[in-house]
Amino acid sequence: TWTTGSVIEEQVEAIREQVGTKRAICGLSGGVDSAVAAALVQKAIGSQLTCVYVDHGLMRKGETEQVEKDFVAATGVQLKVVDAKKRFLDALAGVSDPEEKRKIIGREFIRVFEQAEAEIVAEGSASGEPVEFLVQGTLYPDIVESGGGTGTANIKSHHNVGGLPEDLEFKLVEPLRQLFKDEVRMVGAELGLPDEIVQRQPFPGPGLGIRIVGEVTQERLDLLRDADAIAREELTAAGLDREIWQCPVVLLADVRSVGVQGDGRTYGHPIVLRPVSSEDAMTADWTRMPYEVLARISTRITNEVRDVNRVVLDVTSKPPGTIEWE
Ligand code: XMP
Question: Which domains does the chain have, with CATH numbers?
Fold first, then answer.
């Protein structure tokens, strides 16, 4: 019979057998899958694993700290954090087109990640235990969707660090290959990961970069992060985290709306709340949530976030609307 305990034992055994005395690396995204995969591999091979976290500056409030502090505290994992905030902002300067933003974020992410990988590989070679394995949080549905198959990840390195070959080739460790999402959450909880990571709702890889309609700037990111934190806090306090699949909070940075504050007119930006209910994100409906909770979020955001004088609710299903605005 299936128990989280037996899955963990089985996987720990399998990982030890696969990796032996070699070393492995794992990229952490802040999401559930990579965190649970890393925690499992850490349990199996300890300090033979090094994790990499690229801080692109597009995460929500507290998420980077969750990885850097809470995840490390819970697992004891060896973590390399790359602060690439400025690099991403520079690359995104002047860009408003959503697909262009996605491309830039994806490209920069791979470059920064590969640079970190190459450094870890170089350290491994120096220590005499080569890094041969890359850990990935692939789930059973991912495998079904992509038509099966496993093997190696061939990662093209754009940066030639210390005379390493241009292409780093890794064998994959995929300890979640047989699991569904809810099982992954159970395994994560059993491994002692914090609730904030294990129960996390989906969040897009390009992060807040695609929740600012318009150019991404530091100021806009800070503003959106504050508004998003308020919305999340109130949704959690109202006990709506399970009913709501995810609730993108979007800054319409290129739109200005007139408001009034005291004796004066304001000219600020609208914030959009996009709470959706869904099974798999392929289709979704807007969540009929209590007016009082919406009122609280609206009052707090307009009071507490500078330059926001309006909060609007997105009442579009998917299709025709997507969950994200970009
Ligand atoms: P849409 O907006 O297409 O989103 O209805 C469906 C689900 O996918 C997430 N999403 C992304 N995830 N990179 C990601 O990793 C992306 O570029 C991206 N765009 C959308 C979205 O948050 C939702 O859960």
Answer: 4-198 (3.40.50.620), 211-313 (3.30.300.10)
